[in-house]
Amino acid sequence: MLLKFGSIPTVVVSSSETAKQVLKTHDLHCCSRPTLAGPKALSYNYLDIAFSPYGDYWKELRRMCVQELFSPKRVHSFQPIKEEEIKKLVDSVSESASQGIPVNLSEKFTALTVRVICKSAFGVNFQGTVLNSDKFEKLILNTFLFLGSFSASDYFPNGGWIIDWLTGLKGERERSVSSLDAFYEQMFDLHKHGNKEGVEDFVDMLLRMEKEETVLGSVKLTRDHLKAVLMNILIGGIGTSAITMTWAMTELMRHPRVMKKVQSEIRNQIGNKSTISLDDLNHLHYLKMVINETWRLHPPSPLMVPREAMSEFEINGYTIPVKTRLYVNIWAIGRDPDIWKDPEEFIPERFINSGIDSKGQNFELLPFGSGRRMCPAMYMGTTMVEFGLANMLYQFDWKLPEGMVVEDIDMDESPGINTSKKNELVLVPLRRLNH
Ligand code: HEM
């Protein structure tokens, strides 16, 4: 589908076949990112991984982050942090269970991912930071909102900023960017003054690279480059995993048969052990199907991150000119009746022997995208989701708050680059029997 937004030709791809042409066959023609007002402000002028144009700087920065933060080896080294944080979560939910009090799972999952990301990547406890307040969740939600909203300056390069100013988008954006900036400054201060736990972490390494005047591509790293990378970790890491866990629990509450089956699998696998290991996760095949089914219906980034054509190419006989903006609608592909039987139904069993997984090679299911720009933190995100859900399903049974029935569970989505459940998921935990 071709749309003309202001002066910008915009192509939306909504079938798996065409997605394959864009993300695989012609990946090299269109693996840059468009220049957009929201990302520009957040990424200090496109100095990050997600929004920087295709080129040597992006390649080297991405490679460095994969090596130092996203690789399975690094992710495994963060497992004790995850275990510590999940224990705190289980303790707090147990407290509510013993009193029969409902818990806000959307909030709990966000808090879990924030804490794990802060400790793993930044080496600090989130509790001690300037963002540790009720405002944090709102800040993150606002950031997703303005990243995904149609900013007039993106389509009317000459005068669009006036519209953004009048609608309040510009002010909102500036406030979010300045709150996040204060957070990064605090991270650097904590690291410089040694007021943090442990040995050299990712932020120490970035600071060292800045001091040594390290060059990536032909770009010398400055403080702004460092902040842009921290933004990717914070914004990329937090929303996506928490959104997935919340949607998965929502679907499980709507489908008691699936809930029972996945809990039995987890409880049989774990037995009476007190912790769930990374190795245990490898054996939870049905849980993985539940998560894939969640990603099919509720991909956290339903239009992925937009791409921009760097050179002219053809799709299905149509010429895609240079500078065309491309969105891949993975939300529509996940619900395409030509691919999926009963597409609106939540049936994890559809993945048994289907040969389809979410690792970017099957264009029917692309929660992490595909090709050169595919999410570099897929392993980190997947293990976070599996670990969080496995623990919540192993330790507790769940029921709806008093007076609510399954039909009352709403499935409204929030707008933005990342689509979360609009209304928070609130459930009553019950300590599981025989525990
Ligand atoms: C459930 C978890 C996650 C999902 C579903 C997800 C999804 C995505 C998607 C759809 C893209 C765009 C891919 C494309 O354009 O082809 C992306 C890119 C990216 N993600 Fe993730 N993500 C997740 C977790 C994370 C985490 C934990 C981090 C960092 C801590 C992260 C950092 C990034 C970055 C830096 C990019 C930009 C890559 C580039 O442009 O080269 N993501 N992610």
TrEMBL record:
By its UniProt entry, which CDD domains does this protein fall under?
CYP71-like
Q: Where in the cell is it found?
A: Membrane
Among Pfam families, the record links this protein to: p450
Protein's UniProt keywords contain Transmembrane helix? yes
Gene Ontology CC terms, in alphabetical order: membrane
Q: Which residues bind heme?
A: C375
Q: What is this protein called?
A: Cytochrome P450
